[in-house]
Design brief:
The structure holds two protein chains of two kinds.
Chain A: H1 7-15, H2 26-35, E1 43-49, E2 73-75, E3 82-84, H3 88-91, E4 97-103, H4 110-119, H5 132-140, E5 150-153, E6 176-178, H6 189-198, H7 212-232, H8 236-252, H9 267-273, H10 277-290, E7 295-299, H11 317-341, E8 348-354, E9 357-358, E10 370-371, E11 375-381, E12 388-390, E13 392-393, E14 400-402, H12 407-418, E15 425-427, E16 433-435
Parallel strand pairs in A: 1-7, 1-8, 4-12, 5-6, 5-7
Antiparallel strand pairs in A: 2-3, 4-11, 8-11, 9-10, 13-14, 15-16
Helix pairs in contact in A: 10-11
Chain B: H1 2-13, H2 15-20, H3 38-56, H4 66-78, H5 84-92, H6 98-107, H7 110-124, H8 135-150, H9 155-163, H10 188-192, H11 197-209, H12 228-235, E1 241-243, E2 249-251, E3 258-259, E4 266-267, H13 285-293, H14 301-314, H15 334-346, H16 351-359, E5 387-388, H17 391-402, H18 418-427, H19 442-450, H20 452-457, H21 464-471, H22 477-489, H23 495-506, H24 514-526, H25 529-532, E6 533-534
Antiparallel strand pairs in B: 1-2, 3-4, 5-6
Helix pairs in contact in B: 3-15, 3-16, 4-6, 7-8, 9-13, 11-12, 14-15, 14-16, 17-18, 21-22, 22-23, 22-24, 23-24
Classes of the chains: A alpha/beta, B mainly alpha.
Chain lengths: 449, 535
């Protein structure tokens, strides 16, 4: 029996057309090899729920209480754990997921909370903290990487632009963004055709009529100009310009960018994820993780995409959450099964969260307002012992009854699941070293595998 | 030598001037006001800033040379880099007063109206940038803001007009004229805020007063200055507004009270300084608010405006961030901010007066080249910070460099295709909180490296600038390289650069074709950080 190809070798050969998709049994063999590969890097996929999703109508229902609303809880594949009736497929994957129902983060302004939940720190003072994606990209980078270590799919950045910048870690760890500002009306086939394009990296090919040697000479001359400019005018803007060109060039010469070719996937799988921006974004996340990208985030902000605040249900909370659940449920559950089928689930940490939760009390507009004192985050996949619930809220949902978890505790837990030392220090922009997680966190060790 | 001088004059006066467009007006318009004197205020700016260096032990950078100054001031006032036909005469002009002349020319140009219309629109109506139903109000808002800027309407009057724009009770407003053109009106401001008192309160406090009031919207913060009741009492000035379906705004005259959501508390209008509006005055409550906001006695109004304008020209406000002018976030130069505010107010809120004072200061005219690490703190203003360009500045500057007008003009057959323009704008939109920390994204780099606009700019068949340079019969290679530098970077090449690029072109570059090699040079210049950053 010949030795199995390494995943990287296999992908390279597949990209070069040496292996067809029809090789029988390849997927199982590859999955087994991948799962047992001790060298395999851990990755992280963050499903970012922009606007602040209602915990009471997703993961922490309050049946029988006035605050509960009309949604019914359903049983999951784990006895004793119930979630919303509008997340039936996820209920079947509960053994891979751990719900933290006791987040207390205390910041209920969209912009500030977005910064807080993405960086782990409140936006005060002169230090520009990096978001989780930049931290993981830096900790997990390898010299041979061709795609940036932090890819952000369909973000809505206006709430807190700095929460999408790499902060003091510098431009090298800035996110590669695709699918931004893309909107399509649900069910619009013409719009869906553009979706594949929106999720690709544009302008990767040399312009028509430009030959490779010419492009190389151009880059050589440009590099001389850039060195001089950067030396005369040092600073984050000039450095980031040069870095972006270096990374762009590396991607232009890379085979790994085939990750963005979603057309390679079978139609049935694409349907299963959901033919919408978030669903296809989750599929893209899997393809990127498969090629070793350490951190991928996919934003769900609205039904059509390009909306910031779909989860911001001050008015008519229930139809809004139900419609978003119908997008979330197939995408998230298919992501879990797809990663598992490919042997990637054990090395891929999954995070589901928004910037805060919503008020248990239902307001006069049948809506729920901002609430950061007792809300839910879900972790799953690699490094997490799934099938459990941590923490508990009071019967009315207003307070934490057990095991409060702070943002620092959460970030420390995430680091442990990814094998990152959260006490490690990075040099900040004010010349003071800063720990990856500050404030002596208490990680939620009971959910770690 | 004589031949070369002749040909240079010929090119600048002939081919290029014709192709590359506008010149600075020959005799710059004189300032309309007799007093006060902007140059005098510029000197005071410099004294405050110099005191700051002394206190911090900073050594200032050199003054910017003519090329660095012209490029910067063109970008900051007219929103685009200068044309070759502007750069050459400016660099060669021996007049010691030429910088002031250039400023006057730019302030009188359509570029000023264009650029500041973009700046005010994106500050006041940021909702437009995310597209959607609001797009139809953009035209009316643009027409309004352009007309006011063209007349140099005092800033306080602009804000007052915006706040008090009549709201009718009819459907779908404002009405389009029979030709489909929107009338000039700032109503889009109210539509963008969905006509909601709370959104309008938060937005007007941020934009016109430099106060972040909205944190107090939901609850009292133990440490913050503003309380929930203050927020809603301020919002009550907008209590009469109602939005039914999207873009159907109505106003109930005389409605001056509202209920704080999720409470039983009813509040009426109270100014942020705690005073109550005159109860006998039964006029529109928005009029009463506008009166207070734009009053000369309002301590916030002029300071907020001055700080925003300072941020426009330096990339960072004297108070940073610009909309957080709270006591716990003090200005870098408090006396300077007060003095600018007082002078702005005394000038009758004359935007052009304030712009003149700022750009004529030595502080604004510092080079961005670092000569000492003590210059690295941007709040010392010891060297000019590198600043990112707005999407419009990038696209319009590319158009200038390439030789095509980016705004459709009936008389010109070549324009930047609207779809290409909007795609490029989208690519460069978003992502920055402070302009001095603007970062280039990989996608932006790719758009400039391989995307259609730069490809066309460097296509020998399609590029007007390149074609003019390549085909100019009297230009030697060095002149050609110099012209490309002037077109893209608004400066002449250094000796070393000239040698390097001339050698490259003469060798034919990678393809053995000197024409293609010139295209390579242009590509390199348009892709450089020096092109993409305001420096």
């Amino acid at each position: 029996m010949p030795k199995l190809l390494s995943r990287r070798e296999w992908l390279r050969m597949q990209a070069a057309g040496a292996i067809g998709l029809s090789v029988s049994g390849w997927l199982e063999q590859l999955a087994a090899a991948t799962a047992t590969d001790p060298q395999r890097r851990r990755s992280c996929i963050l499903l970012w729920m922009s606007g602040g999703p209602s915990q009471l109508d997703t993961w922490d229902l309050k049946p029988g209480h006035d605050n509960g609303g009309p949604f019914k809880p359903i049983a999951t594949s784990v006895p004793g754990i119930q979630i919303s009736e509008h997340l039936p497929k996820l209920a079947q994957q509960m053994k891979h997921l751990a719900i933290i129902r006791s987040m207390n983060t205390r910041e209920a302004d969209h912009g500030r909370a977005t910064y807080l939940m993405r960086t782990g720190v409140m936006p005060t003072g002169p230090i520009q903290y990096p978001p989780l994606g930049s931290i993981v990209a830096k900790e997990k980078e390898l010299p041979e990487d061709e795609i940036p270590g932090f890819v952000s799919i369909a973000p809505f950045r206006s709430l807190s632009p700095t929460a999408f910048q790499p902060g003091f870690l510098g431009p090298r760890y800035a996110p590669l963004i695709v699918g931004e500002s893309f909107a399509v009306r649900p069910g619009d086939p013409a719009g869906l055709a553009d979706l594949d394009k929106a999720l690709k990296v544009q302008d990767l090919d040399l312009a028509p009529g430009v030959v490779r040697e010419q492009a190389d000479r151009r880059m050589e001359l440009l590099d001389e100009m850039e060195s001089r400019f950067l030396k005369q005018r040092p600073g984050v803007s000039s450095l980031s310009h040069r870095t972006a060109y270096e990374q762009a060039l590396r991607m232009m010469r890379s085979q790994a960018v085939k990750a963005f070719d979603l057309e390679e996937e079978p139609a049935s799988l694409r349907d299963a994820y959901g033919r919408n921006l978030f669903g296809q974004g989750c599929l893209l996340a899997r393809r990127l993780v498969e090629r070793g990208v350490p951190f991928v985030e996919v934003t769900l902000g609205g039904l059509a995409g390009a909306e910031a605040l779909g989860w911001d249900t001050h008015v008519n909370n229930f139809p809004g959450v139900q419609a978003l659940s119908n997008v979330l449920d197939p995408a998230f559950s298919t992501l879990i099964t797809d990663l598992r089928d490919r042997g990637l689930l054990d090395t891929t940490l999954l995070i589901w969260m928004g910037e805060f939760g919503r008020t248990p009390r239902i307001n006069n507009s049948q809506g729920r307002d901002h609430f950061a004192n007792a809300w839910s985050v879900v972790l799953g996949g690699g490094g997490i012992r799934g099938g459990q619930v941590v923490g508990k809220t009071s019967p009315d949902g207003m307070e934490i009854a057990e095991r409060p978890v702070t943002v620092h505790d959460l970030f420390a837990t995430i680091c442990l699941a990814l094998g990152i030392d959260y006490n490690k220090k990075n040099m900040s922009n004010v010349g003071r070293p800063v720990k990856i997680v500050e404030k002596n966190p208490q990680p939620v060790t009971e959910i770690l595998a | 030598m004589a031949g070369r001088g002749l040909c240079r004059r010929r090119i600048s006066a002939g081919v290029l001037a014709a192709l590359l467009g506008l010149c600075l007006p020959a005799d710059a318009q004189k300032t309309g006001r007799s007093a006060p004197d902007p140059a005098e205020l510029a000197g005071r700016i410099d004294r405050y800033i110099e005191a700051g260096w002394k206190a911090a032990g900073a050594k200032p950078a050199d003054l910017a040379d003519d090329a660095e100054f012209l490029r910067r001031v063109c970008l900051d006032i007219a929103g685009r880099i200068p044309y070759v036909s502007e750069v050459r005469p400016f660099l060669d002009d021996p007049d010691p007063n030429k910088r002031r002349k250039a400023v006057e020319g730019l302030l009188a140009s359509p570029g000023y109206v264009n650029h500041f219309a973009n700046v005010f629109r994106s500050a006041w109506l940021p909702e437009l940038e995310t597209g959607g139903d609001l797009a139809f109000t953009a035209q009316g808002f643009d027409a309004w803001i352009r007309a006011r800027l063209a007349e140099n309407t005092p800033y306080n009057r602009m804000v007052r007009e915006l706040l008090t724009v009549p709201v009718m009770t009819s459907r779908r407003q404002p009405a389009a004229s029979p030709e489909g053109r929107m009338e000039a009106t700032p109503i889009g401001f109210f539509l963008g805020k969905e006509g909601k008192p709370e959104n309008l309160a938060a937005a007007t406090a941020r934009m016109f007063l430099g106060i972040r009031l909205e944190c107090a919207q939901c609850h009292n913060h133990p440490t913050a200055q503003w309380k929930q009741e203050q927020f809603w009492s301020y919002a009550a000035f907008f209590a009469g507004l109602q939005m039914g379906n999207p873009l159907e705004l109505r106003e109930v005259p005389g409605q001056r009270e509202l209920v704080i959501p999720n409470t039983q508390t009813v509040v009426g209008p109270v100014y942020l300084d705690g005073r109550l509006p005159d109860q006998r005055d039964r006029g529109n409550s928005r009029e009463l608010l506008a009166e207070w906001i734009t009053s000369r006695d309002n301590p916030f109004f002029a300071r907020a405006a001055v700080n925003r304008l300072w941020e426009h020209f330096f990339g960072i406000g004297l108070v940073d961030p610009v909309d957080d002018m709270e006591p716990e976030n003090p200005p870098s130069h408090p006396e300077l901010l007060d003095e600018l505010a007082a002078e702005f107010s005394a000038s009758g809120f004359d935007l052009k007066f304030l712009i003149r004072a700022i750009v004529l200061s030595k502080t604004y005219q510092r080079s961005s080249v670092q000569t000492d690490t003590s210059q690295d703190d941007p709040r010392l203003f010891a060297r000019m910070s590198l600043r990112g360009l707005t999407p419009e500045q990038i696209v319009d500057s590319l158009a200038v460099a390439v030789g095509i007008p980016s705004e459709p003009e009936p008389s010109t057959p070549f324009v930047l295709r609207p779809t290409l323009r909007s795609e490029l704008l989208a690519r460069f939109r978003g992502g920055t909180a402070r302009r001095i920390e603007t970062q280039t994204s990989i996608l932006q780099a790719l758009a400039l490296m391989n995307g259609p606009l730069v490809s066309e700019a460097t296509d020998l068949e399609k590029s007007r600038t390149l074609a003019a340079v390549v085909d100019a019969p009297f230009l030697d290679v060095r002149d050609k390289v110099e012209t490309l530098f002037l077109a893209a970077l608004s400066r002449r090449p250094t000796e070393a650069e000239a040698k390097r690029f001339v050698r490259y072109v003469e060798s034919g570059g990678a393809t053995g074709d000197p024409h293609k090699a010139l295209a390579d040079v242009f590509w390199v210049l348009l892709n450089s950080g020096e092109f993409l950053l305001n420096h």
